[in-house]
Queue: 2 jobs
Job 1
Amino acid sequence: MGKNKFIIGIVVVIVVAIAGILLWLNFKQPTSFLSEAAMIEEMNSYTSSLNVKEIQDVLQLDEHHYFVPFVNYDGTKAMSFWKWDKAKWKLVNLTTHQKMRWQLDEKDLSSSFIVWNRSSAEDATMTLLFYRERNFLSSGDNHFFTPQVLLTEEITLSEYGITKVPEQWSKLMAELDKSAGVTNNSMFSFFNYNPNYLIAAEYNLEDFETNGTESYWTGKADTTLEFIMYYDLDRIQ
Amino acid sequence: MGMNFVEAVVYSFCWLLIFVIGFKLYKKQEIKPIIWKAVIVYFVGKFAFSLNYPIEQQAIHFALIPLGVIAIYLFFSKRPNFNTYLKFAWFGFFSNYLFLVGTLLIMPFYSFLYDKNDIHTYIAHSENIEILSIHPSANDNIAVRASILEQVKAAKEQPVNTDWYYESVGDDRVEVERFPYILANIAPKWGSQAKATIYVEKDGKGLLIASPTKHLYYRLDESILQEVTANGEK
């Protein structure tokens, strides 16, 4: 009997310790961001394709996310993405692409930022789109009509920077979500005909001319980092 | 997403019932179990492999294999008083069916209190109401009239027309959207948790209520929108 109690005691201690470590990893508040030297060391060891020549700036997106634009050894512009994860600052990814969409919360499109680091120092404009296609459906006596959503927002792109999608769009997403069926349940998906909305940019030939052909990018590490989709506004309307 | 009023009442009642039955079960035992142990055994016993069916938007869980009871049997069958605790484990398993019955009752009670096919279920309070433009063809200098709730009382239902789709696409494409606005922050009837996106027609006299399972269309005599000047005055 005494031996049993001893074993149960040990099991309890182990369970509490594991729970404590998990809680600590997930809920520890971010420490101050890394020093430049620490950043450079981690970036250089991430891939042999890139080597930091100069860090241009350190921009905070929110408490848990940082964007660090830098110059690559060959003079090309590059970007790095940092996230507070499991009680440490983690390098999410690196790219020499000039513009990306970073969605901080995987489940919430309204947490999207547009981030950029361009080869040109001259300002450029970009038209962001919030778009959902028009749709209709009839099933028996039940008729559904889903209006088109199309909003644009012009943003000015300086050499490098970040911009959050407009507040108004977040409000709109919250309203649009009210008519979405419960589809995130893994067991089954309810009947859902609602087309999804998306954030894109208006197609602009110059954007593609300035993109290097041998850009470095691995999309593997984080699905919340994506290329910006380009739409031709004339073809939508 | 919070629970609606009916769910809150039904599930509270289920837990109350479980407490009462559990207490009676405890009283009936000649050898009394330790209460906190019996409570833990109840929750372990409740754990089961179940089949899940969606009925309307409600998930029905049909408990099939009493995994919790099996676990307790495997690990504790040699302990003294095992048979007493086993009763609480089985009680846990069978209480799943109480919740099943509760879930089945929610739908009819809900439809008795709230009519999901009625505009007034979705538009009940207008305190923080806001109008959002969703299309380039929308007029940005508009506001919602304070009389909206009064006006909605006289709303007449009309069929949702899928021809609206063809009006806006095709060769002679009209670059307008029939419903270029959304009413934001409208509160539904108390306790209903009824969710819908509410679109406003371009003349301000039509409302399209898009819930996850049904779309309703209403026409009003007067527009719920009014024009405002750029500085926000009427």
Job 2
Amino acid sequence: MTLVHVPVHVPPCPPLDSTPAGAQDLATDLRAAAIAVKNVQGWAASIAAPAWAGDSAQAHDHAATRVAVRLDAGEAALDRAVTAADRFGERLARLFVRRGRINADRAEVNDRIDVLVADVAAATDDSRLAELQGRADLLHRRASALRDRIEAWKAARTRVEADFVAALQRVDSLAEGAAAAARPARPDTVDLARQLRRLRGDPVALAAWWRGLRRAEQEALTTEHPGLVGNTGGVPMADRDEANRGELARDLDYYGERDDDAQLTGREERILDNARSVDDALDEHAGLTDDSGAHLTTLLAATPDLHSGDGGVAVGFGDPDTADHVSVNVPGLTTDTSSVGANLDKTLALHEAAVNEERGSVATVYWADYDAPSGNPLDPLDPLGQADFDSVALSGKAEDGGERLSDFVDGVRGSDQGPPAHLTAIGHSYGSTAVGHALADGLPVDDAVLLGSPGVPAGTAGELTDAEVWVGSKDHDPVSLLGNGDRGGLGALGHDPADIAFGGTRFETGDGELRAEELLHNHTSYFTGTSLANVAHVVAAADDEVTEQPPRGAPGGGHLTLPELLVAAGGATAAEGLADAATWAWEHSKLGGRL
Amino acid sequence: MTITLDVPYAVLKAARDRWDASADELDGAWRRLAKISTVDLSDAVAAAVTAFADPWVDEVKAVARCAQGYADEFVFFRRLLVLVDQAQAERLRALLPWAQRDAVVDEVSWP
């Protein structure tokens, strides 16, 4: 038989020597240092001698003036390094994606080569010679093109690293830092901050303005005002993440120093505790990367000194700006920043379930940037609880939380890229009440999921929102029996959305076990099993996959009232059951449950 | 000879606290730079990062020490209760905000 020249396998495209996540971590360290230096430089400059005042000898001897000038060089050098590191990470991410495509094509070509080899070996005569030779020629061309792509990729990898090294080398001395500080083209962060503040409240306009800035301007503003950039709707989520991570690292450094010196005030101690909780939670998931090799987690809001010292935080898995499906998950009572770790596990479970739906890219956000009540609002016999959490105050915190949630979601819509994302708001327990208030104020989401809800501020889904409302309520979850419904209910926080009159779609969750020791579990297990699968279906817009169960009050939707449940679960009397209903939540939340 | 510096105590305390906080801020910064992450970076990039960071670690550390020294000087002057010469008074004034540059340095005249 005539010889057929089959191409050899194409070798794999080599890995990146520097990874996108590694560049992100480097940039975070540089930002943290830049933020700290700018904090001191800004203060020193604010009390320094103006250029036009005083005699020069006096100004030269003035300590703050000298420090301001000296640190300005470091500030300029760090800004340049941050900008270079950011660009480096972005270019590495593009190389990462490109490598993935090359290796996918390579796998396909090598598979075809293997098939051809087998076909040639099986050929006993020249009857298929032309066909086999034609396939071999085609594969030769494809293999050759792939090798060229790999060589071009390797050259680009070398170039990207060399550019970054050169950028760092341009500011790796004090003299070069001073020269960078003197450059007229240096970003004017005062003017940039003024413009950003002016556009706050208009996320769409702000997003457009931000996109028009140079990278150096964005980075200079980020390290000058990380709290502002990191928590303003309309700033791209990836940039918010960078600002918040930089500020978080700076907080750990600064308050850590003061902790070592035993100088922390009570407020500073809480900030440091909050920062450490968030840092630990991010560390726990640091090994997860997205399709571009960057960290999967994104720190989308960080307000460690707000909310009565509890702090606020929002962490995403995936980038909400680019995802096809975005969900924002709001936790409930007793939420504070220290609980972020456990709550992120639930959010990650939902993220993975939604990704596995394979209906497009997904970003899943845990949002706890509101002042959830920390005490017992439900116990009529608790004087402290009554004083701190009468029904007006309780409802007020949900309203305030709803407003902050609306601002955040407006930001998600404002910085969204490409076609508008399919957006779902999820509220668990008291968080569902906060989501309810946001919905009542026009929260711009496509779907709303209310889990274990103690009530929402409308009698029907149609009165509440134009979005589709989905309800997960286990009949043996006592918190879900607090709202007004077909068999009564305390109603302090509004209507039971699982009630037939409400008109939402109640999806299957199971009822949970009817035992006292399982009641807490029933309330805190919506992110598992059938319930989780149904929430994931909603998040991924797979509505036809959702399995339903009858609303309360509908045929097949019979249920116990809260006092009846507590009696049945614990063997108490009916009279005791009502009192127990009020104290139940607090008793269990102290044991670690989150409502 | 006894010298006075005509500055409110609150100004002195605020200045001392801010210099001290600045020292903590800068200590955090140079320590962050000194252990800057080079994980998952190539050898060439890691070397360039270290070469960039080293001089700025030294510089920020030096300014941090200055700031701590200034904060400590306030403590020192407070312990003196009174300033013993004009140079000390002018030195202390130089650590205050520029707005205090005209604070009166004066010799106490004893009856």
